[in-house]
Amino acid sequence: MSSPLPYTSESEALEQAAAHERNGDFDAALKIYLTLAQNDPEALDSKYRAGTALMRRGDLDDAVTLLRQVVFAAPDHLPARTNLGNALLLLGQSEPARDAFVAVLDLDPGNRNALFGLATILIRLGDPGRALPLTARLLQVLPDSAAALTLDADARAPHGDTAGAIAQYRHALRVDPLYLPALKGLADTLYHQNRLQEAEAYARRAIERQKDDPELLALLGAILMAREDWPAAVEALGAAFDRDSNNPAPLVQMSLACRRSGDLAGAIHHAQRAWTLAPTDKSAGNALGAALAAAGEAKGARDVLMAGGDRSRLPAHLWSGLGALQARLLEDEARVREEALQAAAAATLDLEYSAPEQAEQDIPTAKPAQAQEDGRRQSTWESTGEPETLPLFPED
């Protein structure tokens, strides 16, 4: 049964809904559009507007349903077909989204929304070469759009035009210094060019804009690992895992960072967590094997290798004994640190007691100290032709 509307005409209702949208009240606008569509199933414009409002609100499946109805009834309804492509793209349905955008461009080759959407999909599908002509057409229409410039850079980087990609990212950031995709893309491209200091700076700027993005945090962790800043890398990767706890990759990288810094207990711990989360992840198994080998556990490392990335094939006693091994490694590390501190303290005391005695032995008897030293230096210079190098003292 249709629902009544408190308006004298459909046009008045549409005007009121548009006013709600301008004021940011999308729920109120959606209610009007849905009521109009229910009252008249042939009212394609109301269905289109309802579908668009649903997409903006994040109700993508419902939006696709309504927009498909519009496109089926009116194949040349380009706004509905374009938004159908947008909704499918947001749902991760790349193939049907691509078909929707191709159909739009067949009818309107300059449609900016379809150019952007199709280029985005082609880059995601690993076909940046076919995306570049689309981004070039888009830039003809929007030459100073940060989004269009960034998309063009996203296509150039994997296609091998790294210099062009960096230039386009920088252009986008001149247009909008806070445009997150450009910051992220530039940081990633500079990282792969081994320009690590710049890459870190842009990654941190991006994280300031979006602190909870696990991909950004993982990128920062990778950059810090390349810079061999192991503690900071572990911190960034740990934050990435905290925000995406179903992804074992940060744990694997944390294990690697700990192993390279000498923290073998940490290396085993993070690898074990990764393999617990993903029992058939070969990279997690390899990380554990490498950590065990570094800890001198050759047999355990060999057992992990023989498991072939499948944790279920690991000897039960090895897995259950990892906790005790970590505890022993932590005790060993604590003992080494304590011994190092004691040795340093003893060396300091030896210096304190030997310094006065040495100073007393050096007191000259025949002539003042400065005159004796000047004479010695002059003699050395005359015999060698070079001034004597001042003595170097050991650093702490």
Written overview of the protein:
By secondary structure, this protein is an all-alpha fold. Among the domains are: 1-96, Tetratricopeptide repeat domain (Serine Threonine Protein Phosphatase 5, Tetratricopeptide repeat); 255-337, no CATH class. Helix content is 76%, strand content 0%. The chain is built from 21 helices and no strands. The chain has helices spanning 10-22, 26-39, 44-57, 60-73, 78-90, 94-107, 112-124, 128-141, 146-159, 162-175, 180-192, 196-209, 214-226, 230-243, 249-261, 264-277, 282-294, 298-306, 316-320, 322-361, 369-384. Helix 16 (264-277) runs antiparallel to helix 20 (322-361). The longest helix has 40 residues, at 322-361. The chain is elongated, with a radius of gyration of 34 Å.
Describe this structure in a few short sentences.
By secondary structure, this protein is mostly helical.
- Count of DSSP-assigned helices: 21
Ends apart, CA distance between termini: 87 Å
Write the CATH fold name of the domain at 1-96.
Serine Threonine Protein Phosphatase 5, Tetratricopeptide repeat
- What's the overall geometry? elongated
Question: How big is the Rg?
Answer: 34 Å
The biggest sheet amounts to:
none
Multimeric status of the protein? single chain
Spell the H/E element sequence: HHHHHHHHHHHHHHHHHHHHH
CATH H-level name of the domain at 1-96... which superfamily?
Tetratricopeptide repeat domain
Structural class: mainly alpha
The CATH C-level class name of the domain at 1-96: Mainly Alpha
Q: How many β-strand runs?
A: 0
Low-confidence stretches: 362-367, 376-396
CATH architecture of the domain at 1-96: Alpha Horseshoe
Average pLDDT: 86
The fraction of residues in strands falls at under 5%
Residues in helices, as a percent range: over 70%
